[in-house]
Write a structure and sequence with these properties.
The protein has 454 residues and is mainly α. The chain folds into three domains: 134 residues, Fumarase C, Chain B, domain 1; 204 residues, Fumarase C, Chain A, domain 2 (Up-down Bundle), CATH 1.20.200; 50 residues, Ribonucleotide Reductase Protein R1, domain 1 (Orthogonal Bundle). The chain contains 18 helices and eight strands. Strands 1-2 form a two-stranded antiparallel ribbon. Strands 3-4 form a two-stranded antiparallel ribbon. It has a two-stranded parallel sheet with strand order 5-6. Helix 2 packs antiparallel against helix 3 and helix 11 packs parallel to helix 13. It is elongated.
Length: 454
C-alpha cells in the first residue's frame, strides 16, 4: 500500500495515499477499536449537513472567502449524494465528546474539497484546512450534540412508521377476535371472562400510547446547540453566524431544528436524549408484555394453553420433528432486553456530565441508534409474520370458560359470596362444572347461565 504523510498538531502521520481522511483520523483508528462498527449513516449525514451549514453561515458573515466556502459546500454535497462514506472510519464509540469523529469529518470534507473541487493533492491543507476552514466557528462540543439530535430524529422518523404498522396489525386482530370469549387471568390464575379481541385491543392501546410518547420527545430534540462552540458562549463565531447556521441546517435537513435558547444548557445537559431513550425503554416494556402473552397463549399444543395458533416461520427444533416455536415472539423479547439495557447505558452517560460539557456523547448515540435500528428492522417482520398470522382456537377458549370454577363469580350477586365460594370448592373437588352444579341445584337455568356469559 502506498502512503502519504499528513501533519497535525502532534506531528507527522502516515495515512494511505488514497485516503480522504488525514492525520487525526489515522491516530484515532489505532486507538478506538471498540464496537467494530464505523459511523452510522445518520451520523455521517448529520455532520456533513452541519459542516455545509457552517460554511454557508461563515461565508455570509464574511469569515471565510467564497472560494473556500463554496469548495466545502460542494464537497459536502458529494458526500450527501452518497460518495466517500467509507472514509468516515472512526468507531461509533470513540473519544470523549466525539472529537475523533468530528475531526474525521473535517478531514474527509477538506480532502474531498481539495482533490475533487480545487484540484489539489490530498493533504495540501495550506489551500483548505480541516480545522481552520471546515471546522470554522465550531467545536466538537456543539457539533456532536447537534448531530446527536439530528441522527435520533432521523432514526425516529424511520422507526415510528414501523411501530404504527404493528399497532395496525394488533387492531386488526382485535377486530377479528372480538367474538371469541376466553377465560381471563390475574396472578396467572383463572379470572372472569374477557374476549380475545379485548386483550389484543388493550395491547394495541398500550403500544400506541408508548409510540405517542416516543414521538413527543422529538419536540425537545429539535432544539440544537450549534453555535455554542466550546463552552456554550459562542466564542470564535462571527456576528449572526448562529442564527444563519441553524436556519440553513433546518432547511437542508427538513427536521424543523431551532436554536437552543440557553447554549450552555445545550452543551451540559443531555436530558432530551435521555427522554427519548426512556420512552423507547417504556415502549420495549409494552412490546415485551405482548410477546410474553403470545408465548403463553400459544403454549402447547397439548400440555400448554393452546388458545391461539402461531404461524410456523421455520422448524422449531433440530431434534423434535414437527415442533413449532414462538420464535418471533422470543426474538422480540430479546430486542426489548437490548433496548432496556441501552437505556441504562444512556442514563449512566447522561448522569456523567460535568460542568460545561457532557463528554459521554458517542456511547449515548450508539445506544439510542442501536435501539431505533432494531425497531426499524424487526418490528415490521414481527407484525407481518407473527401478529398477522395468529389464529384463535375457539374450541379451547370455550372449553376453558366452561370448565373454570371462577365462573361462579358471575353467580355471586344472585347467590351470595359465601355460597358461591362453596360452589367453587365443590367444582374443584368433584370435577363438575359450575354450570352443571348451579343448574342441577336449581340456582339458575341454562338460559340464564348463557346470558351471564354474554
Amino acid at each position: 500500500m502506498k502512503y502519504r504523510t499528513d501533519r497535525d498538531s502532534l506531528g507527522d502521520v502516515k495515512v494511505p495515499a488514497d485516503a480522504y481522511y488525514g492525520a487525526f483520523t489515522g491516530r484515532a483508528l489505532k486507538q478506538y477499536y471498540v464496537t467494530g462498527r464505523t459511523a452510522h449513516e445518520h451520523l455521517i449525514s448529520s455532520f456533513v449537513m452541519i459542516k455545509r451549514s457552517a460554511a454557508a453561515a461563515n461565508k455570509r458573515a464574511g469569515a471565510i472567502d467564497a472560494h473556500r466556502a463554496d469548495a466545502i459546500i460542494s464537497a459536502c454535497d458529494l458526500i450527501l449524494a452518497g460518495r466517500y462514506r467509507d472514509q468516515f472510519a472512526v468507531d461509533m464509540i470513540n473519544s470523549g465528546a466525539g472529537t475523533a469523529f468530528n475531526m474525521n469529518a473535517n478531514e474527509v470534507i477538506a480532502n474531498v474539497a481539495l482533490h475533487r473541487i480545487l484540484k489539489k493533492r490530498r493533504g495540501r491543507y495550506e489551500h483548505l484546512h480541516p480545522n481552520d476552514h471546515v471546522n470554522m466557528s465550531q467545536s466538537s462540543n456543539d457539533t456532536y450534540p447537534t448531530a446527536m439530535h439530528m441522527s435520533i430524529l432521523m432514526s425516529l422518523n424511520e422507526a415510528v412508521p414501523a411501530l404504527r404498522t404493528l399497532v395496525g396489525s394488533l387492531n386488526a386482530k382485535a377486530a377479528e377476535f372480538a367474538g371469541f370469549k376466553k377465560i381471563g387471568r390475574t396472578h396467572l390464575m383463572d379470572a372472569l371472562p374477557v374476549t380475545l379481541g379485548g386483550e389484543f385491543a388493550a395491547h394495541a392501546t398500550a403500544i400506541s400510547n408508548a409510540v405517542d410518547a416516543v414521538e413527543y420527545t422529538k419536540k425537545a430534540l429539535r432544539f440544537v446547540a450549534l453555535g455554542g462552540t466550546a463552552v456554550g458562549t459562542g466564542a470564535n463565531t462571527p456576528r449572526g453566524y448562529r442564527s444563519v447556521a441553524v436556519a440553513e441546517l433546518a432547511r437542508i435537513s427538513g427536521l424543523g431544528l431551532k436554536p437552543e435558547r440557553d447554549m450552555q444548557y445545550g452543551l451540559q445537559s443531555r436530558a432530551a436524549v435521555a427522554a427519548t431513550s426512556g420512552a423507547l425503554r417504556n415502549l420495549a416494556l409494552e412490546m415485551g408484555r405482548l410477546a410474553n402473552d403470545i408465548r403463553l397463549m400459544a403454549s402447547g399444543p397439548v400440555a400448554g394453553l393452546a388458545e391461539i395458533g402461531i404461524p410456523a416461520v421455520h422448524a422449531g427444533s433440530s431434534i423434535m420433528p414437527g415442533k413449532v416455536n414462538p420464535s418471533l415472539a422470543e426474538c422480540m423479547n430479546m430486542v426489548c432486553f437490548e433496548i432496556i439495557g441501552n437505556d441504562a447505558t444512556v442514563a449512566y452517560a447522561v448522569h456523567a456530565g460535568q460542568f460545561e460539557l457532557n463528554v459521554m456523547l458517542p456511547v449515548m448515540l450508539n445506544s439510542v441508534l442501536e435501539s431505533t435500528d432494531m425497531i426499524k428492522r424487526f418490528v415490521p417482520i414481527f407484525a407481518a409474520n407473527l401478529i398477522d398470522g395468529l389464529g384463535a382456537n375457539g374450541e379451547k377458549l370455550q372449553q376453558y370458560i366452561e370448565e373454570s370454577p371462577v365462573i361462579v363469580t358471575l353467580l355471586a350477586p344472585k347467590i351470595g359470596y359465601l355460597r358461591a365460594a362453596d360452589l367453587f370448592k365443590k367444582s374443584i373437588k368433584t370435577g363438575r362444572t359450575i354450570r352443571d352444579l348451579a343448574v342441577s341445584e336449581n340456582m339458575i337455568t341454562e338460559r340464564e347461565f348463557d346470558a351471564l356469559l354474554k
